[in-house]
Write a structure and sequence with these properties.
By secondary structure, the protein is an alpha/beta fold. Helices cover 30% and strands 21% of the residues. The radius of gyration is 21 Å and the shape is globular.
């Protein structure tokens, strides 16, 4: 695939914007497929992340959430579009230049066991980013830093010589968090940080992330399926569908007044711990499967599953437009909730 030149129009919006994404695309060529099809995992998304903010990213499996995160942190090279991080365009930075990014932006992975090297002790796992950083500390100071990080995430520094398999799932995720914090990043991208954990442990990890954000001034991007957790931890929420953003709003506004039909369907699936309310409310069930990202529908990508689809939805792709405190990509949404005629 031919990669576009850097987008010279990308400029920082203000000093409080840590990440600015503009028309970002990440496509994968499907080798061996007839016609040389392309998988459009992320297909033109734009948003910003403010300093100290927690931005939640939600959507069904396969909508492009993880690919978006890995492209922003530059584990994947963008196909097109721009990424501005702390005032620098990192869209097409070389591996050498990305060393600065690696220190300022870290990732917590979904599986706390698969992301840890089973042949390394916990102390060595947390020490590794310290030993590779540009301002490498002496061995003694690194050892003290590892002990400090273990205490910070609620683990005993005396267990630094143990291996990952000797810890529980929640403890392993704490080790992953400590590793991410080792080089003092300003941004942490958490990809499903609690989905692989027991329900009883999830609240502990979420509370730990919130405490660390408050004490260290961190900025979070949190990818999740658990919409209740996203509401609890996020300041704003991005809703993705088939590689596109369909809605952005503050967490409180999105959950109280979802405008896009897809967002409404997602939120209707959240159980309410009040039997009387749960019996009265209407569940929106989406029909059919998510279309293939190698051959998305014309017009609105959600139209094949939307109960409110109209002829215009088949012909034109809706732009992400601001309506008050919302940004929504839907032909049926005006300056207010969905029209009753839609």
């Amino acid at each position: 695939m031919i990669e576009q030149a850097p987008d010279t129009s990308l400029r920082p919006q203000d000093t409080d914007t840590v990440i600015q994404v503009k028309d970002l695309k990440k496509h994968f060529s499907m080798r061996g497929m007839r016609g040389g099809k392309v998988l459009r995992a992320v297909d033109g998304v734009s948003f910003t992340v403010g300093r100290g903010e927690t931005l939640g990213i939600v959507g069904e499996s396969g909508c492009g959430k993880t690919t978006l995160a890995r492209t922003i942190i530059r584990l994947y090279r963008p196909t097109a579009g721009g990424i501005l991080f702390e005032g620098r365009d990192i869209s097409h930075s070389s591996e050498k230049d990305l060393r600065w990014v690696r220190q300022r932006m870290q990732m917590i992975f979904q599986d706390p066991y698969a992301s840890l090297n089973p042949r390394m002790t916990v102390g060595d796992i947390i020490d590794e980013p310290l030993s590779l950083s540009a301002d490498r500390l002496p061995v003694k100071e690194r050892r003290e830093r590892v002990n400090e990080l273990l205490r910070m995430v609620g683990l005993d520094p005396g267990h630094r010589n143990r291996y990952p398999h000797e810890f529980s799932g929640g403890q392993r995720q704490r080790i992953g968090i400590a590793r991410a914090l080792a080089v003092n990043p300003s941004v942490i991208i958490a990809d499903e940080p609690v989905s692989a954990l027991d329900v009883s442990i999830r609240a502990q990890i979420i509370n730990l992330l919130e405490e660390l954000q408050e004490s260290l001034g961190l900025t979070y991007m949190v990818i999740a399926h658990d919409l209740s957790m996203v509401k609890h931890i996020s300041d704003r929420v991005v809703v993705m569908y088939l590689g596109k953003i369909v809605e952005i709003a503050s967490a409180s506004e999105l959950y109280e007044n979802p405008l896009h039909p897809y967002t409404q369907a997602l939120l209707s699936a959240i159980p309410i711990p009040d039997p009387a309310v749960e019996r009265r409310r209407q569940r929106i069930v989406l029909e059919g499967d998510v279309p293939s990202p190698t051959d998305p529908p014309s017009g609105c990508r959600f139209r094949t599953r939307c109960v409110k689809v109209r002829e215009v939805c088949k012909k034109a792709e809706p732009a992400l437009v601001e309506f008050g405190t919302h940004s929504v990509a839907c032909h049926l949404v005006g300056p207010g909730p969905l029209s009753s005629s839609a």
